[in-house]
Amino acid sequence: MNKPKMATEKGVPSNSRVLMLLGQLERMNGEAMMRDVETARQVTAKIFHLIQTQEKSGKEVMSKGSSGMEVILASLEVSSLINWRFQLRFNCIWCYCCFLSSGRGRRVGVFVSKGGTGILFQILITTSKELPPSEELMLQLHSLLAKVGPKDRKFGVKARLSGALNATVNLTKQNLQNTKLLLPCLQVLRVYSTNSVNAISLGKNGVVELMFKIVVPFTVDCHNEPTNARRAVDAGHVHVLLALYQDWHHNDTRHRHMLIRKGLLVCLRNITNIKLGRKAFIDADGMRILYYSSTECLPVRTLDPLVNTSSLIMRKCFPKNRLPLPTIKSAFHYQLPHVPAVGPVAQLYSQPLGVDDVVDESDDNEETDADTENDTDNEEDEKDQHTDIETDLNKLHPKKNPGRPFEELKVYERFFLELSEDFQVSNLCPSTRPIIVPTAQALSPKHVPITSCQEDCNPTKAERAPPSPSVPTPAPPASLTPLELDTIHLTKDQDRKEEARIPSPDTHTTLSSLTSNWGSDCGSEGTEDEGGEGAVLEVPDTALLLPLHDPDLYVEMVKGTHSVPQYAEVAYPDYFGHIAPTFREPLQERVYGVQRSKIFQDIERLIHPNDIVDKVVYDLDIPSCPVIEDNGESLKFNSQFESGNLRKAVQMRKYEYDLVLNSDINSNHYHQWFYFEVSGMRVGTTYRFNIINSEKSNSQFNYGMQVLMYSVQEAISGRPRWVRTGTDICYYKNHFARSSIAAGGQKGKSYYTMTFSTSFSHKDDVCYFAYHYPYTYSTLKMHLSKLEALRTPQIYLRRDVLCETLGGNSCPLLTITAMPESNSNDHICQFRNRPLIFLSARVHPGETNASWVMKGTLEFLMGTSPLAASLREAYIFKIVPMLNPDGVVNGNHRCSLSGEDLNRQWQNPNPELHPTIYHTKSLLQYLAHIQRAPLVFCDYHGHSRKKNVFMYGCSVKETVWQSNISATSSDLHEDLGYRALPKILSQIAPAFSMASCSFVVERSKESTARVVVWREIGVQRSYTMESTLCGCDQGKYKGLQIGTRELEEMGAQFCVALLRLKRLTGIRNHQHLLDLESDIIGTQSKVVSPTTYVVEEDEPSFLEEIDYSAESNDEDAEPEIEHGIEVQENANHLDRLSDCETNHKD
C-alpha cells in the first residue's frame, strides 16, 4: 500500500491529540513498524481509547479532509504480515468497528473503496493459521466483515479466491457450542452465500447439514440454490423446519425473537422454490400450519414480515390448477381465409388437444420467474427499455419508402376527391355519388370490387345474415328477458318521452324484462301479467344532454353490425346512453392489508374445501343455454351483446363469484377487457367478484383505479351513467396457470386475479360492469350519422367506406375540412393545398378511451365555434375512427378476428387478414407518392399501466442520446418540430403530461403505426397519443379518475393544439420557425433530460411478497402547469367542456 500523507480538514484543530497520534502512526508505517511493533501497539491502543471515550475524536478521524482511515488501514495491512503479535491487529480492528458502527453507510463505502475488504480477508487467513486462533480477534473480525460485506459487490468472489470462505466454515464447525462467536460467523456466511457459486460450494462442503445442527437459535440463507434445497428435502428437513417454526410461534408470545421465526420462514421459502420442496411442504401439512399461525399474527402489525413471507410461501405451494374451461382458446371460432405460416396464430392452429393442462415440471425459482407479457401495452415496454432502443442509424433515419408502385395506389385517388374537386356552382356540397371502394378482396388476386353507399350503414333487418345452424341463438328464460332486436317496436309520444311498464315483483319478473313497444302513435302501455299490477317508469328524454345519442337509431345500427356469435341483444347502457356525472370520482385509497386478506380467503378454499359451493351459473361453452337456471339463490350473468366479454361465472361462496374472461378470437390469451350484465341481486348485500384469468403482472387496479358500473334503475330514474365503483380492489398472482406450450414457451405462466367487492342499491335492478367506458361499433355508426345531420353548408364532410373487415363490417373513413369561400380559382387552390392531418383510433378494442377521445375530436371539428371554423379552414382531416371494428364488436381486448395485434402489422400488412391496416397504409402511401404526406399523423390509444395522457413520437437525436451509440453531427441533424405539438398540449390540456412523453424509437415498435409512418411515409410529427385508463397524478385532475368528459375534452384540446401548431408552421421563414419552436420547447430539447424518456413505469414494480398499503403510492407529484392566456381564449369556445373544468377544479 502506498504510504498515505496525513491531512487535516479545515476547522479541525491541528493540535488535536488523536490527529497527533495518527501522524505518529503514519511516520511508523512500513519497515519502521516492523522494527518497533510495541510502539505501534501502544499508539493504536491510545487511538482506540480516544475514539472509544470521546465522540469528537472519531469524527476527527473520519472527517472529510482527514486521512486517518488510510493511516489505520495501512497499519492493519502491516500487522497482517506479523504472525507473532496480534494486539496491533486487534486495536486497528476495534478502531474500525467503532468507526463503522457509529457512522452511516458512507463510511463503509469509503472503507471498501480503500481496499479494506481484502486486508480483512488477509488477516482472517493469517489468524486462522495460528494455533489456537484468537477467539476475541475472530469475533471482532467477523463482526466487521458482516458490516462490510453487504456494501462490497465483489465480497463473495474475494472471499472465495482468498480462502476466507473455507476459513469461516472451519471456524463455524469448531465453535458450534460457542454462541458468542457463532453468530457473527453465521452472519458472514449469509453474506457469502448470496453469491451463487459460493452457495453451491458451501452445500458441497456440508454446510446445509451444519445449519440444521444449529437451526433452533440461528438460521442462514444457504438454501437459495436448488442443489442445497434438494439436500434439505432429501434429509427430511422440511418437516423439522415447520415443527420448529410452530414451536417458536407458540412459545414466543412476547414476539422478542421475530428474527429467528423469520429466518425459519426464509429457509422454507427457498426450499419451496423447487417442485420437490413444494411437494414436501404440502405433505408436511405446511399449508394448514402457516395459515393458522399467520391468522393469529394478523392483529399484531409488527408481525407483518412473518405474515407476508408465510403468504408468499402458501401462494407458491398452492397446487397449480388449470382454468375451469374445456380450452383456453376463445369460446367463439372464426375460420380464417388462410392461416399464417408462422407466428402465434399458426402455433394456435397447430396445437394438439390438451395443451391447456398444467404440468408443474419447473424447478425454477418462481420468485424470479419473469412476468413478461406477449402483449405489451401499445408503446409500453415491460423489459429493460435500454436494451430495446434501436441502435442502427440506417434504420433510425426516416426514408420515404412508398413500397408499392403508383399504378397500384392510383385506385385510392377516389378517397381524395377534395384534392381535385372543382366546386362548380351546381355542386358546392360534397358529392353523394356511390364510390367504388377497394376492399381486401378487391386488391387480392380475386379482384372483386364492391359498391358502397350510405345504406351499408343501415341495412334492413332482412339483410342480416341468418344465425348459424350449428350455433342456435338461445331463448332466454322468462325471468331474464333482455332487450332483443326482434322484439323492439318503435313508438314515441308527443313529448318524445319513452315509457315502459315493468311488471310487479309478484309476477316473478325483473327489470331485465324491460322492452319498448314502438311503432304506434299512442304511448306504450307495456305488457302486464294478469296476476299483478304494473308500475309505469318513465325513461327520460336525454336528447339535450346527449345530442349524438338516439336509442331508435342505435337499434337500427346494431341490426347492421355483424358478430361471430350472431348477437341478437342490446345492452341497456348502449341503448340508454351515458351522461358523464358532474361529481368528482377520486382515485380510491388502498386499504392496508387488503391484498393479504383476499389471498388468505383464497387459501381457505384449500384449507376448508367443504365451505366452497363451486356452482357454475353462466357458461358460454354451453351455447344452447349459457344462463343456468337455479332456485334464485345465485346472481344471473349475461354477456351476449356487442362488445360483451364474460365467458364463465362460478359461484364459489354464497356471495362470491369467480369470473373467467373470454380470450380474443383465434387466440388463447389477451384477457383484460370485460363487459357483462348482472341481475338477481339482493339489496345491501356485499358481493365479491374475482376475475381469475388476467395476464398482466401489474395493473392500475392496485393504484386507485375502480371498475365501472351502470344501473338500469338509475338510468330510468334520470341518471343514465357509468360510475366508478368497487371496494377492496386489488390485483395479484393466483394459483391458475397454463402449460408452457399454451403460454408460448414460458413455463408454468400464472394468471392474475382482479378482485373487487360491491353492493347494490335497488331491488330488481339490472347492472353492468365494465373495464372502461364501453364504446361499441354501433355507437360509432350512430354518432357518425348524427354528426352528418349536424353538417352546415360551411363544412365539407365526406364519409366513405374504406374497406370491409374479415367479419363483414365496414370501416368508415371521414374527410372533414371547410368548404371554399367561393368557386374562384384562388379559393379552390387554397382549399386543395391545405395541409393534411391523418388521425386514427381504436386499433386495440379494449382501449375504449381512445374512442371517447376521438369522439371529442370529431365533435369539435363539426362544431360551430370560431376555433373549429379556423381549424377546418387550416387543414384537411382524414380520419379512420375505428381501425378494428371486428375486435370491438366481438369483445376482444387486443386483436382482430385474425388473432393478431393489428398495431404490429404496419410493416407488411396482409390485404385479407389485416384489411383496415392494409388500406389505411395505402392511403398514406398514395399521399406520399403525390407529395402530400400529412403534416401530423396521430394514432389514439389507451394505456393500462400509466396515468395521465401523453405521447410517443420519433426522434433520431433522442434515440441516440439514450443508446449512447457513436454518431456524427450530421447524423444528429434534426428539426425540433416533433416536440412542438406535445409541448403545446402540455400547456393547454390539463390531463396531458409532457414528462411522460417519449421520442425514442424501439426495436420492438418498428412495425407500429407511429414508427412505420415516420420511417416509410416520412411524417416527422408521427405520434401515438396514450390516454390513461385510470386517472391523473398531476395538473388540475390530480388524484381523480378519468371520465368520458375529460377524455372528450382531451380530443377537443388536441384540435386546439393543432390550430396553434398551424400558426407556428405557417411562418414562411424556416429559421424563424425553428426559433419559435425552440422558445416553446425550452432548453430541455437540447439537453438530455430524464423526463424526456420514460425508463420505468410511473408505478413501482409489483413485488408479490409485498402487501401494498394505501401509502405505497406516495409518488412525487409534478407541479400544476399554468395554462396561460391561450386557455382563457379557448374557454369561450368550449362551453360544453367548461363544466368539466368547474366540477373538477381543485
UniProtKB/TrEMBL annotation:
Reactions it catalyzes: C-terminal L-alpha-aminoacyl-L-glutamyl-L-glutamyl-[tubulin] + H2O = C-terminal L-alpha-aminoacyl-L-glutamyl-[tubulin] + L-glutamate; (L-glutamyl)(n+1)-gamma-L-glutamyl-L-glutamyl-[protein] + H2O = (L-glutamyl)(n)-gamma-L-glutamyl-L-glutamyl-[protein] + L-glutamate
Intracellular or extracellular location(s): Cytoplasm, Cytosol; Nucleus
Gene3D superfamilies from the UniProt entry: 2.60.40.3120, Leucine-rich Repeat Variant, Zn peptidases
UniProt key word Iron: no
Cofactor entry: Zn(2+)
Segments of skewed composition (Basic and acidic residues): 383-395, 492-501, 1120-1146
GO biological process, one term: proteolysis
Enzyme class of the recorded protein, top EC level: hydrolase
Gene Ontology cellular-component terms listed: cytosol; nucleus
Active site, per annotation: E1026 (proton donor/acceptor)
Annotated keywords: Carboxypeptidase, Cytoplasm, Hydrolase, Metal-binding, Metalloprotease, Nucleus, Protease, Zinc
Domain Peptidase M14: 773-1062
Key word Lipid biosynthesis present: no
Official protein name in the record: Cytosolic carboxypeptidase 1
Species this protein is from: Cyclopterus lumpus (Lumpsucker)
